[in-house]
From TrEMBL:
<protein>
    <submittedName>
        <fullName>Dolichyl-phosphate beta-D-mannosyltransferase</fullName>
    </submittedName>
</protein>
<dbReference type="GO" id="GO:0004582">
    <property type="term" value="F:dolichyl-phosphate beta-D-mannosyltransferase activity"/>
</dbReference>
<dbReference type="GO" id="GO:0016020">
    <property type="term" value="C:membrane"/>
</dbReference>
<dbReference type="Pfam" id="PF00535">
    <property type="entry name" value="Glycos_transf_2"/>
</dbReference>
<dbReference type="InterPro" id="IPR001173">
    <property type="entry name" value="Glyco_trans_2-like"/>
</dbReference>
<feature type="domain" description="Glycosyltransferase 2-like">
    <location>
        <begin position="6"/>
        <end position="172"/>
    </location>
</feature>
<dbReference type="GO" id="GO:0009247">
    <property type="term" value="P:glycolipid biosynthetic process"/>
</dbReference>
<comment type="similarity">
    <text>Belongs to the glycosyltransferase 2 family.</text>
</comment>
<keyword id="KW-0808">Transferase</keyword>
<keyword id="KW-0328">Glycosyltransferase</keyword>
<dbReference type="InterPro" id="IPR029044">
    <property type="entry name" value="Nucleotide-diphossugar_trans"/>
</dbReference>
<dbReference type="InterPro" id="IPR039528">
    <property type="entry name" value="DPM1-like"/>
</dbReference>
């Protein structure tokens, strides 16, 4: 039994899903995977189910009936992972924008230190972004500054989606009350960990824009994050 589970939410990731699964399972450190699929019409969940025959103890699948947002996918994944008694619960995208080679660095940052959340950070010293247009880089970078100013969160990459939580962090943060479905959910989870005075560290990564499949980013998701930070200040996380 591994102490670590990686949650990957998917919607139409058939071009990436087998590659990311095999890559994660290629490492000496044993990670388990939980794919949370929102009824992808392209057959993503079917491919995962096929691969479960090859990796019956390590690969898990949650099928959800419809596309219902990143935040709700992670809530379902957190509940499942805590029920299965994993000590370290990761978030990662399927499209290789998060380099699986960095998983062990995020794991070590938590497991070898008094840290309950390690963040794969684009904007701390040593972090980078590749293949994004300049306007998107600036939008993301200044959005993080905006969030830090409002929440006083002390994290440079506030919208980062590549993370490792300790079990204790997820048991303490009341994530069920978080209403957000997009990047605002990622911000709010970090804010919740900070409010509980748990250790957080940013680990520099190189973020690479996806090469296959379609981005799920939208104007609505961006607006939700900009407005949502004001609501977070009043939440009982």
């Amino acid at each position: 039994m591994s102490d670590s589970i990686i949650i990957i939410p998917t919607y139409n990731e058939i071009e990436n899903i087998e590659r990311i699964i095999r890559k994660v399972f290629s490492y000496e450190k044993e990670f388990h995977l939980l794919i949370v699929d929102d009824n992808s019409p392209d057959g993503t969940a079917k491919k995962v189910a096929e691969l479960q025959e090859e990796y019956p103890a390590r690969l898990h699948l949650l099928n959800r009936p419809k596309k219902d947002g990143l935040g709700n996918a992670y809530k379902a994944g957190f509940d499942w992972s805590l029920d299965q008694q994993y000590d370290y619960i990761f978030e990662m995208d399927a499209d290789f924008s998060h380099n699986p080679d960095d998983l062990i660095r995020l794991y070590d940052a938590c497991a070898q230190n008094d840290v309950h959340l390690s963040i794969g950070s684009r904007y701390c010293k040593g972090g980078k972004v590749k293949n994004w247009p300049l306007m998107r880089i600036l939008m993301s970078y200044f959005a993080s500054i905006y969030v830090r100013m409002i929440l006083n969160i002390g994290i440079k990459d506030t919208t980062a989606g590549f993370k490792c939580y300790s079990r204790e962090a997820l048991e303490k943060v009341n994530y069920d009350v978080i209403p957000f479905k997009g990047y605002a959910f990622q911000i709010c989870m970090k804010y919740g960990v900070r409010k509980h005075n748990l250790g957080i560290v940013e680990v520099p990564i190189t973020f690479v824009d996806r090469q296959r499949g379609t981005s799920k980013m939208s104007t609505g998701i961006f607006k939700e994050a900009l407005v949502g930070v004001w609501k977070m200040k009043k939440m009982k996380l």
